[in-house]
Amino acid sequence: MKTYTHILFDLDHTLWDFEKNSEETLYTLFDTYELGAFGKFDSTSFYKKYKFVNTLLWDQYNKGKINQQELREQRFVKTLTGLGLEAHQVPKGLSEAYTDLCPTKTAVFPYTHEVLAYLQPKYGLHIITNGFKEVQAIKMSSSNLHGYFKEIVTSECCGYKKPDKRMFEHALERINVKPEECLMIGDNLECDIDGAREAGIDQVFFNPEKSRAKLRPRPTYEIHCLSQLQEIL
C-alpha cells in the first residue's frame, strides 16, 4: 500500500453538505420573498427546479462556458421563468440573498469532524475546490472546518478549474509534495476523480448515494461514508 503524506479534499458535496444547506436556504427564501403569492408553484417545486437549473449551470461553469457572474445572475431567473414567471417578476436581490445566507449553514456529512480529527495528526489536510474563495471561506468557518486544513486552493486563486490537471499541479506546488504522496477525496467523477488521475494522484470516490455510475476507469478507492476513510488511511 502506498504511503500518503497529504490528503486533498473537495468541499461541497464531500464534507459540507451542499444539498441539505441549500434546501434549507431555498425554503427560507421562498417564504421571505413570498414566492407562493404568485400562485404558480409551491416551495417543493421551487427547490427541485432550482436544484436542476443550478446543477446544469455549475456544469457549464466547470467547463468554462459561463463565468461566476453569469452563474449567479442566471440561476434564479432560469428557475423562476421555468416555473412560469416573467423575467421582470423575479424579485431583485434574490440571488444575493441566497449567496449571503447559504454559506452560513452548518450541515456537514456524517463523521466529517470525527474523520478529520483522526486524520489531522497523521497527514497534511488541504481543500481543493471550484467554489468561490469568499463563499468557501464562510462555509468552512460556519461549519467549524477551517481549523483542520493548511492550504485552501480555489479555482479563483490559481486560474484553473478541476478537472484541469493544472489546478492539481498548482496545489501540489503550494504544498510542495509529489503526486504519489497525495490522495484526493471527492464526489465528482469528472472534476475530482478524473482530474486527480490525470495529475498522477490516487483518488477516493465519495459516493454516499451509492450511485451505479459507470466508473471509467475505476478510482483507486470508493467509499459510501466518510468513516470508511479510517479503513484506507
Automatic annotation (TrEMBL):
<dbReference type="InterPro" id="IPR023198">
    <property type="entry name" value="PGP-like_dom2"/>
</dbReference>
<protein>
    <submittedName>
        <fullName>YjjG family noncanonical pyrimidine nucleotidase</fullName>
        <ecNumber>3.1.3.5</ecNumber>
    </submittedName>
</protein>
<dbReference type="InterPro" id="IPR011951">
    <property type="entry name" value="HAD-SF_hydro_IA_YjjG/PynA"/>
</dbReference>
<dbReference type="GO" id="GO:0008253">
    <property type="term" value="F:5'-nucleotidase activity"/>
</dbReference>
<dbReference type="InterPro" id="IPR006439">
    <property type="entry name" value="HAD-SF_hydro_IA"/>
</dbReference>
<dbReference type="InterPro" id="IPR036412">
    <property type="entry name" value="HAD-like_sf"/>
</dbReference>
<dbReference type="InterPro" id="IPR023214">
    <property type="entry name" value="HAD_sf"/>
</dbReference>
<dbReference type="InterPro" id="IPR052550">
    <property type="entry name" value="Pyrimidine_5'-ntase_YjjG"/>
</dbReference>
<keyword id="KW-0378">Hydrolase</keyword>
<dbReference type="Pfam" id="PF00702">
    <property type="entry name" value="Hydrolase"/>
</dbReference>
